[in-house]
């Protein structure tokens, strides 16, 4: 078998081959180069992550969260609700500051990726507002290329964050301002050209608009359960998961898959879940170069709210959901009747799971 860099195989083939070898030959190559971090800004990457340990199911080693400046486990519940004030009409105004910057991040143990980021992290901050809020985002571009913030929602053409409307040049800034509609699980991303490059380099994040119970009294209880800060919402365990992937050798084919960027982060550090409290996942797919991604829950089923724009499920009692790029939704389920233990979740494209998109819930009594 030939190694990466000799023109014989791609990184994707090498990673899969590593699993089949049980980490043998490729693990030896890894050990020989262990002192050097792997950089993904070359035409061909030198060393793939290996799957030799952990039953051949995960990458080997640990990512340095401190160096990255973000922790995938903390990202699950790290909502940015902005600075809150009131305007002259008494309406809630939420203000945010988001900065674009170039930053090298570690996406798998020892594998560095030259990312373009919002606030130094991938995905960018998970912005959360309430339906009807006035939203104001000061966007500063400290990166090396023009960038934007395109929000999936309702707004004017001037605020669309596309070439000609809302572009921040390097060293410049732009202020986006709009009212938050409709409620649901949404996203934002850079919409400058070439679009696929700006997205796959890391410029995206979750944008959640909570429903206003006062606007729908017939479904007020369901709306309050989604509204951050209410007693009804406090009973839920809410998690934000952004499904993403990385083309490490820039051949328009992904080599690493993940939720919230770091391969197998939640396989190595399972997500703690209280058995008595229901779970709500805000799931967003922003994977480039693959037409669909998916989420599969082991040993359980969930209700699904496509785009999160309804308070009644669009699908009931399913255990797998597919999403194309930019599609998103809300999953609700419970482990109340399950015994404590580890419950797996992953993409149900086996290759995606093997290359990083797999994790576990640790259900506790």
What is this entry, summarized?
The protein is an alpha/beta fold. It contains nine helices and 22 strands.
Features:
365 residues; 6-stranded mixed sheet; Immunoglobulin-like; alpha/beta; 9 helices
Descriptive report:
With 365 residues, the chain is α/β, with parallel strands linked by helices. It has three domains: 46 residues, no CATH class; 157 residues, Cupredoxins -  blue copper proteins (Immunoglobulin-like), CATH 2.60.40; 127 residues, Immunoglobulin-like, CATH 2.60.40. 15% of the residues lie in helices and 36% in strands. The protein is built from nine helices and 22 strands. Strands 1, 3, 4, 5, 7 and 9 form a six-stranded mixed sheet that branches. Strands 13-12-15-20-17-18 form a six-stranded mixed sheet, with no helix packed on it. The longest helix is centred in the first third of the chain and has 10 residues. The protein is globular and about 50 Å long.
Basic shape: globular
Please state the CA-atom Rg, rounded to the nearest Å: 21 Å
Assign the CATH topology of the largest domain.
Answer: Immunoglobulin-like
| Count of helix runs | 9
Q: What is the top-level CATH class of the largest domain? A: Mainly Beta
CATH architecture of the largest domain: Sandwich
**Sheet of most strands:** 6 strands, mixed
| Weakly predicted, low-confidence segments | 1-9, 14-54
- Please identify the oligomeric state: single chain
